[in-house]
Each structure stands twice: as C-alpha cells, then as structure tokens.
C-alpha cells in the first residue's frame, strides 16, 4: 500500500494503471519501430496471430512476450500495492487488474480503441494469479492447433477449459468468476473467427497441423 493515499483512490489508481498498461499494444508499438501498422494488413487485428501473418514468427514471438509481460506487470503491481484491511483483498485487486489490462489490450486508449483479442494478456495475468493453470491450458491450445490448424479455435477452446479447470479444482469464488469471465471474453473477442469457421473462410495454418498429419500417416 502507498502511504498517504486513501484505499479507494489507491484501488482506482491501480485499476486505471492496469488499463493504461494494457493499452500499450505490443504489435502496434513494435510494428511502428518497423514502420508497419499491422491493422492495415491481414485480418486487420492487432493481435499475435495477425502479427505472425504480417511480419513472421520472430515478430509474433516478441509481440506475445510483450503482451504477456504487461499482463504480468499490471497484475503483480495490484497484488503488491493493494490496500490492506479493506473489503477487496489483494487477490481481488489482482483479478480486477488483470481484467482491466485485458480490456486495455482489446480497447487500447493509445491506439484508437482498436487492439487485439486479449489472450496473451490473460495468460500474463494467470501466470501471476494461478500459474498452475497455464500448462494445461497451453496443452489444450496446442492439441487443438495441431489437430485443426485454427489459432482462433484453439484459443476459444483453451479459454473454455479455464472455468472447467477452476470448477474441477474447487477454486474460490473470485477465481472461478474470473475464469468464467475470461472464457466468455475470449469467446466474444473471437466471434469473428467462429463466424468464418461456420462459413468455411477462416485462415488455417497448415504447417501447424502436425497431429492431423500424424494421424493420417498412421491410417495409411
């Protein structure tokens, strides 16, 4: 807690700071260094998948690391500086700050409220709040991606696994509701991907379909 600041003002400041941190888009910031606005290319989204399509895997990896990092930082600061002895404990501040950072990523103040879809920033928050959840979610993501080649579908499925994992582990209410919110939020931000899947026009990474190719190879 910061000495001399009222608890309510400190809570508001932490959440505002988390949103502003989330508003710093990795793909747009790093893209500007290369003279590219990836929103003018590919799908028009400022997320990691379009970063990969636009400027390759090295750029996409840097973007993912940046966006995960800001989720980590926003959540950690809220846990570290949260006021004590208040109805909202430190954990609640962490969940709220992670949510604010995700909102900032999707609707960034600094970039005309046109950002990414929030998955990497959500992972950053989870790495601080519930790190044990990240490996099974990553496994689900990899399995769906290597089976189908659809990044958006893999992200939605991994997000759907999060509340199930929280329920199965008998998580406390704050964690459970956070996980439900993240699952629904990823479903919302990837609604255009799901629509294209239904229409058969969604872009597919054929090189990522390793599991699909392995199964087909064994069937021959």
State the gist of this model.
This protein is mainly α and 220 residues long. Helix content is 70%, strand content 0%.
Tally of structural domains: 2
Q: Largest beta sheet, briefly? A: none
- Return the string of H and E elements: HHHHHHHHHHH
Strand content: under 5%
Mean pLDDT: 88
Derived from helix and strand composition plus strand pairing, the structural class reads mainly alpha
Shape: globular
Q: How many DSSP H or I helices?
A: 11
Low-confidence stretches: none
- Write down how many β-strands occur, each being a DSSP E stretch of 2 or more residues: 0
Distance between the termini: 63 Å
What percent of the residues sit in helical stretches (DSSP H or I)?
Answer: over 70%
Query: How large is the radius of gyration?
Result: 18 Å
Name the descriptors.
mainly alpha, 220 residues
Describe the structure.
- The protein has 220 residues and is an all-alpha fold.
- It has two domains: 1-129, no CATH class; 131-220.
- Helices cover 70% and strands 0% of the residues.
- The protein has helices at residues 7-22, 26-33, 48-55, 57-81, 90-106, 119-129, 134-148, 151-168, 173-189, 191-199, 210-219.
- Helix 5 (90-106) packs antiparallel against helix 6 (119-129) and helix 5 packs parallel to helix 9.
- The chain is globular and about 65 Å long.
């Amino acid at each position: 807690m910061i000495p001399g600041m009222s608890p309510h003002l400190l809570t508001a400041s932490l959440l505002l700071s988390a949103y502003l941190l989330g508003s710093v888009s990795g793909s747009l910031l790093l893209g500007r260094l290369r003279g590219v606005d990836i929103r003018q290319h590919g799908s028009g989204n400022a997320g990691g998948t379009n970063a990969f399509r636009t400027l390759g895997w090295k750029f996409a990896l840097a973007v993912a690391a940046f966006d995960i990092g800001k989720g980590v930082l926003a959540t950690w600061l809220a846990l570290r500086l949260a006021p004590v002895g208040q109805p909202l404990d430190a954990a609640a501040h962490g969940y709220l700050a992670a949510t604010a950072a995700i909102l900032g990523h999707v609707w960034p103040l600094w970039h005309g409220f046109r950002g990414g879809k929030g998955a990497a920033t959500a992972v950053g928050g989870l790495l601080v709040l519930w790190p044990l959840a990240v490996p099974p979610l990553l496994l689900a993501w990899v399995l769906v991606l290597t089976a189908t080649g659809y990044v958006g579908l893999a992200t939605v499925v991994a997000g759907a696994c999060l509340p199930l994992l929280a329920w199965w582990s008998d998580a406390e209410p704050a964690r459970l509701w956070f996980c439900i919110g993240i699952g629904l939020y990823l479903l919302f931000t990837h609604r255009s991907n799901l629509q294209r899947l239904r229409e058969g026009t969604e872009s597919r990474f054929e090189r990522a379909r390793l599991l699909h190719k392995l199964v087909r190879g064994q069937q021959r």
